[in-house]
Every structure is written in structure tokens, then in C-alpha cells.
């Protein structure tokens, strides 16, 4: 009986831990509303590499650009036809600094945004949760959104995401918010 009870407690603990570490998504519109209504109480970060922002666009609604992954231009994969991307070793420390600058702590709501939401948005949110931050979400479909499956825009990132939701963005980058190592 003790073994069964112990097994159940361990299983429940592992399930609870797994659930606690899965970041939840929010829409661009929900994020915009939160930044307007409670902007002093949340930290909204763009986790894209700054060069990517330079070519795709930026929203000044974010508090800061803190890349989760940084492009390593010295390592190129011929097979994938892409440069390597490594986790920014200063990511957590930079998020802590951004929270401190707003007078917030690790219990404050943090929202991350990447290009599509899945490759760095959700992983960066989960990375923060695994490191002691308690309330982290990511923007579903990110800044640029998903590719259209059909029609004249087929293959272009013209569906959902911050850019396609009618929210403010620009090709201009706020120099006070862009990441500089």
C-alpha cells in the first residue's frame, strides 16, 4: 500500500510539474490590450535576433528586445541551408534586468514574442518557467504570423500574428529597445 501511495504521489508530482512548465499562448490582440491597460505590471519582450527585426519589422509596444537565440554567422548548415542559432547565454540575466528596470519581479507576467510563436516564443517562455519565473506566456503565431495555405498570398506569412492583426508596427527600430550585446 505504501508503495502504491508513493507511486501515485510521485506520478501526480511529475504531472503537476509538467503542467506548471507549459507556457500558455495569448493572441496579439490580447497582448496589445494588456500592454494598454496594465503595461506597468507586465514585461513584453521580443525574443528575435535583432538582425531579423531589422528586416521584418518591430513594434514599439514591446518593452525590450532580448533575443532567446542568437544567430551564429560562423556556423552554416549546408543540409538545412541555415545559420546555427544558439541560446543567448545572457537571456535570463537580461530578463531579470528588464524586470528590475520596471520595478517587477519573477512573479510578474512576462510575454514573449518571436517571428512565428513556435520556434522561439513558446520555447523561450518555457525556458523562463524552468528557471523560476512563474507567469510567462507567449504570443501565438508571433510577430509575422503563419503562411497562407492558398490563394495569391500562398506561402507568404500573411495570416494572423502581430503584423497581420492591424496592430502597430513599423520597419523603424526603437534604438532604446533593441538588443546590443
From TrEMBL:
One Pfam family matching this protein: Rhodanese
Rhodanese domain mapped to chain residues: 38-155
Keyword Transferase attached: yes
GO MF: transferase activity
InterPro entries: Rhodanese-like_dom (IPR001763), Rhodanese-like_dom_sf (IPR036873)
PROSITE patterns for the chain: RHODANESE_3
Keywords, sorted A to Z: Signal, Transferase
Signal peptide: 1-20
The keyword Signal appears for this protein: yes
Protein's name according to its UniProt entry: Rhodanese-related sulfurtransferase
Amino acid at each position: 500500500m505504501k508503495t502504491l501511495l508513493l507511486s501515485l504521489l510521485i506520478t501526480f508530482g511529475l504531472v503537476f510539474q509538467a503542467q506548471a512548465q507549459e507556457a500558455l499562448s495569448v493572441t496579439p490582440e490580447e497582448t496589445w490590450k494588456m500592454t494598454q491597460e496594465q503595461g506597468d505590471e507586465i514585461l513584453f519582450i521580443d525574443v528575435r535576433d535583432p538582425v531579423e527585426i531589422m528586416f521584418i519589422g518591430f513594434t514599439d509596444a514591446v518593452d525590450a528586445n532580448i533575443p532567446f537565440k542568437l544567430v551564429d554567422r560562423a556556423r552554416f548548415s549546408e543540409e538545412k541551408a541555415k545559420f546555427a542559432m544558439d541560446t543567448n547565454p545572457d537571456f535570463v540575466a537580461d530578463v531579470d534586468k528588464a524586470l528590475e528596470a520596471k520595478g517587477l519581479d519573477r512573479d510578474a507576467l512576462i510575454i514573449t514574442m518571436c517571428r512565428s510563436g513556435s520556434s522561439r516564443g513558446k520555447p523561450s517562455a518555457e525556458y523562463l518557467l524552468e528557471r523560476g519565473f512563474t507567469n510567462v506566456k507567449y504570443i501565438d503565431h508571433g510577430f509575422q504570423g503563419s503562411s497562407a495555405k492558398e490563394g495569391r498570398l500562398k506561402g507568404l506569412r500573411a495570416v494572423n500574428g502581430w503584423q497581420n492583426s492591424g496592430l502597430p508596427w513599423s520597419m523603424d527600430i526603437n534604438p532604446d529597445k533593441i538588443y546590443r550585446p
